[in-house]
Amino acid sequence: MARQSRRIQVFYDGRCGWCRAGAQRLKRLDWFGSIDAIDYTTLAPGQRPVPEEVFNSGMPLRTRDGRILIGFDAVRHALLRTPVGWAVGWLLYVPGLSHFGRRCYNVFARRRPRDAASAACRTD
Question: What is the pTM of this model?
């Protein structure tokens, strides 16, 4: 049996300034080096954890045990792995907050620009 990684893998859209900035913020919170942030767009289709249409619905994350989480569930899982974000991560499991958070995340994911040339997407 293959040994599981001790790090989680967060896959972000390298064409999107918002996504790049989010991955950078997450890495800054990751004081213990438990998260690998990977630009999904640099991976060959066979290396990608989910198909493109699933990726476009939300950020994928591969847990230490190999499960794939998407979008809001991926964000709160990642936050729980950081010393600064864990409290926020736990709050995102509260039923009312999780429902509201999931809805907000889904609206944001649907509306984010996916074109690297889009000025609205740029944060740099």
Answer: 0.80
